[in-house]
Write a structure and sequence with these properties.
This protein has 7 helices and no strands. The protein is mainly α. The protein has one domain. The N and C termini lie far apart (86 Å).
């Protein structure tokens, strides 16, 4: 029995289980989460539009990716899916700095990093991938999964940034005086 295999199992169970729980909060309202409707409202407010579609995608990426990591099945797909969701979450928290104590991106960054590392390293001997002869855990699967997840995360982040900028511009226009900037007001 290899200590590396035990370490990979521990990482998969800890990180994958955490991701399943977070996804279940979003999808089903489990563990005090908002469920689809509550999460959709939060996603909309954060600039992820449409909110419901993004809530389902985030919840499915976390719960599904986490479940695949726990099982050690299609590990590259599970790790890449979870990593992509965590990259998007980290960008939301980025303005608050690094540390979680100030609302920063520390927590999603660590979950995303470990998920990506598991996608690359593989699940180890104590996994369904190993039991199936790694039928769903090939080098090309890893490259394809990480590239696809990276492209998806990039597109999601860019779309959110554009939405946040447009919302800020609309708010600025709504807050401007009706006569326009610099127009003297008659007394």
């Amino acid at each position: 029995m290899s200590s590396n295999d035990l370490s990979l199992l521990a990482l998969r169970l800890g990180v994958g289980g955490t991701l399943v729980a977070h996804g279940a909060q979003k999808l089903f309202g489990a563990f005090g989460g908002g469920g689809i409707e509550g999460t959709a409202g939060a996603m909309h407010a954060m600039g992820f539009r449409p909110g419901k579609r993004n809530a389902v995608l985030a919840g499915a990426s976390e719960a599904g990716g986490g479940a695949l990591l726990v099982l050690g099945l299609a590990t590259p797909v599970g790790g890449a899916s979870a990593a992509a969701a965590m990259v998007a979450a980290a960008f939301v928290h980025k303005p608050n700095g690094f540390f979680t104590t100030s609302g920063g991106f520390e927590y999603p960054a660590v979950l995303g990093l470990v998920s990506a590392a598991l996608a690359v390293s593989g699940p180890g001997r104590f996994s369904l991938d190993a039991a199936t002869g790694h039928a769903l855990n090939k080098r090309w699967t890893t490259v394809l999964a990480l590239a696809g997840a990276g492209a998806g995360a990039y597109a999601t982040i860019k779309q959110r940034q554009a939405t946040v900028a447009a919302d800020a511009q609309a708010q600025e226009a709504a807050d401007a005086p009706a006569d326009g900037p610099g127009t003297p007001v008659a007394s």
